[in-house]
Amino acid sequence: MISRIDLRGDALPEGPALRDLLPRAEFDVLAALEKVRPICEDVHHRGDAALIDFAERFDGVRLDQVRVPAAALTRALEELDPAVRAALEESIRRARTVHREQRRSTHTTQVVPGGSVTEKWVPVERVGLYAPGGRSVYPSSVVMNVVPAQEAGVESIALASPAQAEFAGLPHPTILAACALLGVDEVYAAGGATAVAMFAYGTQSCPPANMVTGPGNIWVAAAKRYFTGKIGIDAEAGPTEIAVLADDTADPVHVASDLISQAEHDPLAAAVLVTDSVELADAVEKELKPQVAATRHVDDRIVPALSGKQSAIVLVDGIDEGLRVVDAYGAEHLEIQTADAAAVADRVRNAGAIFIGPWAPVSLGDYAAGSNHVLPTGGCACHSSGLSVQSFLRGIHIVDYTKDALAEVAHHVVTLAEAEDLPAHGAAIKARFGWKVPESK
Question: What is the pTM of this model?
Fold first, then answer.
């Protein structure tokens, strides 16, 4: 069901050579880009009419309007299963607890007497958030997108999720209920690239946004790439992935269940176990069979994911080598199930989120740890972070110098301007002092 990659015995290669040995899903955003381009431009030119046509084409339902009526949000919350409501409320509470602490404050640095630089943090004015609605329904993604935007102080928040034929063209009612719980009343029935285009260009019913965030399929990722530079994005999210670094202290039942939990997202989902224990590898492989047989989404998601080229059990000589492997892989979710797991986790450099020990599975982070589950995929954890309050804030430097403070450094500015053959830069300084550069004190 799952392949093995044996990296024992020889010295591990460095950098890209090591990454090339590791499993990874094929995810060709560039090829998808050419397919989403005409879709995005149709939304640009026809607005809501294009969105309605694409909902009929892709989602099988003809919409009367793209924006979800307020009454539908209210009704969805009223009809929400009380247990689901309680779970969502607790997820929101914990997410707020964590994300509220991330907000940065304005800070002023006194560089010299009379000269200061202040960094203030300003939220983007308007964001468009995306909640997927294809194979599964993700009200948790509503929470993970909305909470950090709200805690950052974003004034205008809109959310899009695909139209559902089963619900008369509205997004899934649990998505709508989550929006109502969070106080988001601007919701649109739009999916995939069309939703990103709606936020990027604006339409008759939806004003344009400064930024779009949220996970999605390859079409969402391609649309984000198409609009990079026009709008801000969080990341081009690829197929979800889990890596588990484990030794012989790990429970194979736990490890197998965690690999399966990620595989049930999508046939391209990646499940990777890195271990120095052949005994654990054998036990996990044995444990996968009955656990897979006992769950749902087996043939359409789990088996293709576990048996695909993106998933594997990777054998290494020791935990030191295992750390090199997981750092090269840069997993979206990384579990550490080893002896002294906290100390091992502290040595990890590249991961979207790290889950320590047997009682912090990825499922906890998906819903109720308080952390954010919108995380970098495809190795992007080597250079990028997950969604947070900082994603919605811009740092602006404010420079405040007196005449004396400028005079003190003027000769350095002029010297550097002339060294770069930019004499007008130096002239802008000289003009303030009667065209004679003050002597340094």
Answer: 0.94
